[in-house]
Structure formats: structure tokens, C-alpha cells
Amino acid sequence: MGTTQIAVLDAAARCFGRVGFKKTSMDDVAAAAGVAKGTVYLYCENKQDLFAQAVENELHAWVDSMSTLIDPKRPADEILTEMARRDVAFVEDRPLVADLLVGALDGLLPGSRHRFVELRRKGVGHVVAVLELGIRQGVFAADLDVPATARVLQEMQLVGALLARRTQLSTAQVRRHQRATWQLALNGIRGR
Amino acid sequence: MGTTQIAVLDAAARCFGRVGFKKTSMDDVAAAAGVAKGTVYLYCENKQDLFAQAVENELHAWVDSMSTLIDPKRPADEILTEMARRDVAFVEDRPLVADLLVGALDGLLPGSRHRFVELRRKGVGHVVAVLELGIRQGVFAADLDVPATARVLQEMQLVGALLARRTQLSTAQVRRHQRATWQLALNGIRGR
Amino acid sequence: MGTTQIAVLDAAARCFGRVGFKKTSMDDVAAAAGVAKGTVYLYCENKQDLFAQAVENELHAWVDSMSTLIDPKRPADEILTEMARRDVAFVEDRPLVADLLVGALDGLLPGSRHRFVELRRKGVGHVVAVLELGIRQGVFAADLDVPATARVLQEMQLVGALLARRTQLSTAQVRRHQRATWQLALNGIRGR
Amino acid sequence: MGTTQIAVLDAAARCFGRVGFKKTSMDDVAAAAGVAKGTVYLYCENKQDLFAQAVENELHAWVDSMSTLIDPKRPADEILTEMARRDVAFVEDRPLVADLLVGALDGLLPGSRHRFVELRRKGVGHVVAVLELGIRQGVFAADLDVPATARVLQEMQLVGALLARRTQLSTAQVRRHQRATWQLALNGIRGR
DNA sequence: GATGAATGAGGTTTCATTCAT
DNA sequence: TATGAATGAAACCTCATTCAT
Q: Does A13 have pLDDT greater than 70?
């Protein structure tokens, strides 16, 4: 991937993440990437495709960042907490990933639904891994429906992060929200 | 409110809920309401205002429907479960309310943000009431951060419902997802 | 058909006829019709459809004008000569009809081919009628392949007219060309 | 002319002939020639010039092919018939020549009109030769306006060939059309 | 109140042309 | 010679909004 292509995809992710698909114009992307409008079309079929590429891009970065966290020797609940912390930071300037995993994009771009389903599957992968680790360590309940629970945890976490961003809560409120989320979540999955 | 106005607002809610703000045209709304395009403008300043009115409308219907549920003599966890069931049904054809409460609209219409904050506050009200009831009944943990937890529960529930709708999961998958959600939630808030 | 629609279709025919499909922009048509760009789209699906409508329009005018000529009491060769004269005048400011009948549009707009075939069939109708009249009158050869010959005559005539227009021949040259055409044609079809 | 230049001009003729001037992109030509887009510009000033060169190229090939046919010892009407047969075959994959001679290009590229007039003059040359031969042989009418008639014959022939190609008639229909054309033409020019 | 024809800014996409390598 | 990434003007089309009836 040449540097121009990277610039374009990054700019696209930034724009789409900030104001959404419809409100982002190809002109915006081109300007943000510092290239001419036509140049953007060298790296995508059309706007929808550009969006999908941007999402894919960000998701890969996120998955990579998360997979470094999973160390079988650490307690799983600790890892999960750390993941949560990172999610918040990540969503800070990459809201696209959260939108994807939370399902907010499917209604928007019905055409890319298929592509998104696949990405979403990748996205929950590491939560599944941590849950399984936790069960092996005996710290999480053995009878969890792992894939479903993983999805739920991920949603809780990401929606919380998005909500904080979108509704511009005060830091104190965000802190309370997160604490409540994790009390709920950890209590919920812990073995008794 | 004359019958035409009601028709317009209902049509608006239906359209916006089905395909979103940007993809709904004023023509669509007029057609769905069975009036001419100009007529729509008799009942709103502009598209954004129409949207906000539609959201408000639906939220009031929802809040009303929920408040009938809270009966101090029933166990709070039972009420909560019933609420969940209703949410899913409600979101089925009124996704706007869910979008509002989950924060998905704030990014979309920055101009109406303050209006939404207010509505959201109203929206959690009944969850707060049930949590407080449950604590009094001794079935929920006494040290819950009630407002924050209420918000989290509501998010979990609504995002789950939205996700099911948007991503067109199979009924079996939806069922699993919901079961996981409520195992997590009830375990999380129950007193030990 | 309201007056605006008529203005739009007329303007379209004028523009398309003068500079062709691709070189005519929707802005040109709007300007020529004295309306805004969006207005043009009130009366057509898209550019291609506008073109097809314009062609259809002109063809009907042409067919109407021709059908008044056919009077069974006049000698057929005289009628044919008169038709030729009219064709030239007609093509003068309605080249679309000639382009259609000569097949020049099919390569241009493959999507409308079907529509054009039908129109073309209508277009030759009156030449067929004159040939049949001439055979009954005994002035044309009885063994003519009437439909095929009609088409050929029409092509000769229209291509000649177009050529004169397009290549901007001098009047004298045009006159010679037409005389040659009709010597050929009338000799060719006359009974011996 | 190096082999690259030949490849470019041939590719251009093929593309322009198949889909027309406007619908052929410089990318198409480059791809068809198997070179990069920039390379095409080494052999032409711009798109219009490339088109004119391609036309010129094909016309020369055509004129050469036709001139071998004229043998004073053969009957002129036979030669003419043979020419017709060749025209059809030639137009099959070189429609540019036909378009040029029939005047279809003048409207398209007003800028090259004078260049085309000259080429067209060359193009009729061999028909003129055959007509003159036929008159000398006594098989064609002595009072023909030779240049004008030559042009008319050429038009009839080429438009017929083009029409067959463009409108995708069945072989049977094409055959009928051609027979009608030549009955008309030969009857028309034959001395009585 | 109600209508719907008309508007035109704004968005997406194409493609002839250039130029540094 | 040859390349192909980059450009940006220009084209098509949409739709929120207005206003005369």
C-alpha cells in the first residue's frame, strides 16, 4: 500500500468516524487526505466501497492491538478489565470499529451487510478467547454460553464508550457509567 | 393535534425508523402520510425539526407503556424481565426510541443534542424506579449506583434488540443473545 | 402535457439534434428550456430517457406531417418526390428523426434499442403506403420487395439530407446530390 | 511508424469503431493497445487527433483494397457488385470508414471537418472510376452525373451495411435489404 | 389548510491530460 | 521511449425548501 493510499484510507476513516457516512462527502475525504478528488477514486470503486475499506482497516488495527493482550498467565478478569480500558481509548478516535461491532452500520449500508458480518465475527474473537481462558482458570462460571456472552460484553463495553463520546458526558459521569458496567459484567460472569 | 398532523408525525417516525434520517426524504414522509409534500411543512420547521418531533412522540408512547408495568407488589426482577420482553417488541417497529436512548442519534443531529439529553433522562426513569423497588424488596444489591446501573441495563437491553433487528439474526441466535444478556444482568445486580 | 413539459421536450430535441447525445448536457437542456436543472428531471427518469422521449416526440410530428400527403388520386411518383422535398426541410431542424431512421442512434444508446426498433417500424409506414399505391397505379414495378425497398428509399433520402446538413455542402452541390438520388430511385422502382 | 505506434492506432480504430468517440476512453485505447495511458499521448496531440489519425489510417487501407478491383476488361456492373460485397465485409470490423464516408463523423467532431472532406473525396474515387468505365462500356447510362451518382451509390451501400450491423437484423433481413438496394441501384444507373 | 411544480445547491462519479520517474 | 499516479473540470442526479394557486 503506497503512502497515498494510506493517506486516503486514514482520512476516510477519520471523516466517516467523525460525522458518519452520509454527512461525509468525497470532497471532505480528499481534502483531509490532501489529494484531489479524483485521486480518492484510484483507491476505491465508490463511496460505499471506500467506507467498507476504512472500516476493515480500522478493525484490523483494533484486533491486532487486542490480541497482544491475551496472556494465559494473567487472570482473565484482569485482562478483560484492561481490554475495557483500551476499548475506550480506541473508540476515542476510531468510532468506526465500535459502530461496526454494535451493528449500527448495517442499517446504514445494507449493501455491505455481508462484509460486516464477517468482520464482526473476527471482532469478537478475542473476547471469546478471554472468556475461555477465564473458565479454564476457574474465575468465570463454567456454564457460560461463551459466544453469546462475548458478544454481549463487547456490546456493553462499546456502547458505553460510544455513548460517552457521543453524548459528551462529563468525565465523572463516564467514570460512573463504566464502573457500573463492569460491576454488572464481572458479577455476571464470575463463578459462584 | 388534527388528524393530518398525527398522520404526518406517525409517517415520519415510521420512515425515519426504517431507513434513517438521511435516507428518508421529505417525499417519502409525505407519501407515507398520504399528503402532499408542502403539507408536511405545515407541521414542522424543517426536516431536522420533523425528526425531533417524531422522536419525542414515540418516546412519550414508550414511557407511557412502561409506566403501567411498575407495580410495587410484584418482585422487581420479574418486572425487569417483563420490561425486557416489551422493549424487544417495541423496538420491532419503533426503532427510533432505541436509537435515541442508546445515543445513536446524537452524532447524527448535533443540533438537537440538548433536546435528546432531556428525552433520554425521561426514558431511564422507569428503570430507575424498578431498581429502587428491587433494593427495597431486598432482591437487588443495596450498594448499586442506581442511575448509572439503570442506564447500563437499558443500553444492554436496547442495543441487543437493535442488533437483532439490524443484523437479521436467526430467532435462535436472538434467543441465545437475550438469555446471555439477562443472565449477566440479573446476576450482576442481584444481592448476594 | 403542461407547457413546461413541452418546453423541456422541445429544448431537449433541439439540443440533442444539434450536438448529439453525449455533447448535450442536462444543463444545456435546462437553459434552452428556460427552467432550472431539477425541473428537467420532473419530466424524465434520466438523460437517456429524456433523449428517447425527444426522439419519440419528433417522430410522431414527422409521421403526422407525412400521412397528410398520401392521396390515392395523385400519382405515386409525384407523392414520393414531394415526400423527399419535405424530408429535407424536416431534417433541417429535426435531425433526430433522420438519425433514428437511419440507425445512427442504435450504436449510441444500446439501452433504447428496443424502443427505437418500434419507432422505426412506424417511420417507414408511409413509404410502404406510397409504394403500394404506385404499384396499384401501375407506375411502379409490380415485383418490388415493398418493405425492403421502402426502407432503402427512406435511408437514401434521409442520409442525403443529413449529409447535406452535416457536411455543409453548397446549395448547388446539394441540388445535384438530390437529383442524382431521385434519378436513381425513380428509375429503379419504375415499371418497365 | 514503430510497432508501438501501429499498435496504438490500430487499437484506437478498433475502440472508436466499436463504441464511438465519446464512449471510448483513452484508458480503453491504452488497454487495447497493451501500453500505458501516457504512451498513447506520445503518438497524438489529444483524443480528437487520435481519432482523426485512426480514421485516416483505415481509409487508406480501404482505398487500397478497393483499387485492386478495377480491371477495365471486366464488365463495370460486375465490378460494382463485387465492391458492394467487399464493403459489407469491410464495414464488419472497420465501421469507422463507413461512418466517415456517410458523414456521420462531421457532426461529432466539427473540428476535424475539413480533414474529413478531403478524405471523403479520396473515398469516392474508385466508384467514380467504375461508373466512368461502365459508361465507356455502354452498360451505364451516358447522361449520369458521375460524381454525384457515385456519392449516392456509396452512401446507399455503406448505410445499408452500417444499418445491418447497428440494428442487428437477422441475416435474412439483411439479404433482402441488400437485394433491394442493388435492384434499385443497378436499375437506376443502367442505360435503356 | 393543502397542494405540487419549480428551484438550485450540493453530492457522486468520470476521464482527458500532465509530469516526475 | 514508456509509465501510471495524480489532477480537477465537468457531467449526472437528488432532494430540502419555497410559493403561487
A: yes
